[in-house]
Design a protein that fits this description.
Blueprint: E1 4-9, E2 12-17, E3 20-24, H1 35-58, E4 66-73, E5 80-88, H2 98-105, H3 109-115
Antiparallel strand pairs: 1-2, 2-3, 4-5
Helix pairs in contact: 1-2
């Protein structure tokens, strides 16, 4: 997969891939979330995809289901030290599926990549502008 990252103006930095654009921005005049906020949101939304798929496969309505993601940071480094995902289900949700719902969310590809992070290689390339 290739993504093109460009700089549309101000503090904006956008990613383009597969016909989509993910806009990001920086405070104080942000018109989009920061790149780090988009990264963090990808964890909860990825888990949500797996929760949604689990429910759809079993014909369980998703009304009233939500995931609350809590970010805990190390007070000395400011780095994220823990992420909690609390899958909140309505009172009528079948108890027999609660543990399975957790296992489904645990399959999240974003989470799995964080557990075994990729290597990074950063280079520069000169290109001729037309």
């Amino acid at each position: 997969m290739e993504m093109i990252i460009d700089f549309p103006g101000g503090s904006r930095v956008d990613a383009h891939f597969g016909g989509f654009t993910v806009p990001t921005d920086q405070p104080p005049a942000a018109s989009a979330p920061t790149p780090f906020a988009v990264f963090l949101s990808s964890i909860g939304t990825c888990a949500g995809i797996y929760v949604l798929g689990f429910c759809r496969q079993r014909g369980i309505p998703t009304d009233g289901i939500r995931i609350v993601q809590r970010i805990h940071s190390n007070p000395f480094t400011g780095m994220v030290s823990k992420i909690d995902l609390d899958i909140q289900v309505p009172a009528g949700f079948p108890d027999k599926y609660r543990d399975s719902l957790i296992r489904a969310a645990d399959l999240c590809a974003v989470k799995k990549h964080l557990e075994t992070p990729p290597a990074f290689e950063i280079t520069t390339t000169k290109v001729e502008m037309a």
